[in-house]
Amino acid sequence: MDALRVLAAKLQKRPVALCDSNDVDGIASAALFKRKYPEGVVVLAGPSEVKKWWIKAFTWDFVADLPCPGKAKVRADHHKTNAPCAEVEFYDPEAPAAAVLAAKALGLEEDPVARELVEAAVQTDTADVRDPTVKKLDLAIRYGFAEEKLAAIEILAKKGLAALDEEPLKTMAARGEEKEKLVLAIAERVPPRETLFIYNPVHLGISYRALTIELQKRGAKFVNILVRRARRRYRLYCGAHKDGVYDCTKVAVPLGGGGHKYAAGAQIKAPLLDAERPLRTLVEMLKPDVVYVLGPCNNIGPRCEEIKLPESLDALMRSGSGER
């Protein structure tokens, strides 16, 4: 469907953008593009999806908060693991958010709505959310569905954070607030330690990035969460204190991922005949004193300690489901 949308846009000579789907920074960058080019078409993708053949087949007018998709005219990004590649690069690994660079690339630095969106991206991407409205936007985007996010981009481009008073953002934010309660309940059960390695054998439909941030607020300096999303498919979430000695890229990059020193991740696929290897690999790499498991240990190893889940999530674990 997205490929057809881009093809139609190309035939109509409308500009096309590719932006990160996962967080406020990517969504804000997409909204900035739509503010500059209301007739433009936005496609949302995760970092691992830019390798898809159809994404690499097109020349993108604007790319933000993502690795190079192959052919791009302008790209705005701040991930040190994403090498520059576009005809015109707005690339600065020291920038607090890609949206800062996107606003510059699009000539919107003095636009009041754009400045509001950039500030929201900076607060969320640096895990320093001070504005309750930005917090609400963060929750909305974390738990929004793909079509909701595209609709949200349209209204954010026109109204900025005032869009939170309208649909679909109202429903998205309400959903996020309920999910946040589960994240806080889990964080409450995890022992306060400087370094934490957590394994989740079933995806629970929560934001694990939000969980890393919450655990850091409670004293952790280095958090790695490995989530098993299918029999052979895993996702790593890493969070580290920005001013500490730990570097998340040193964990994520060897596993085929990327990100920042203080936040990185990786999609990991296990070998066909060794579905447990990613867990063993992370244990060997991180050498944790203990592996904390969200749910039963189930022979994880002698260093395993179970974290009892809230009842609503425990039911999901028993049923073997939980992913939206």
TrEMBL record:
Question: Where in this chain does the entry annotate a coiled-coil region?
Answer: none
Gene3D superfamilies xrefs: 3.10.310.30
The record, for InterPro entries, names: DHH_sf, Oligoribo/pAp-PDE_c-di-AMP_PDE
* Signal peptide segment: none
What protein name applies here? Fis family transcriptional regulator
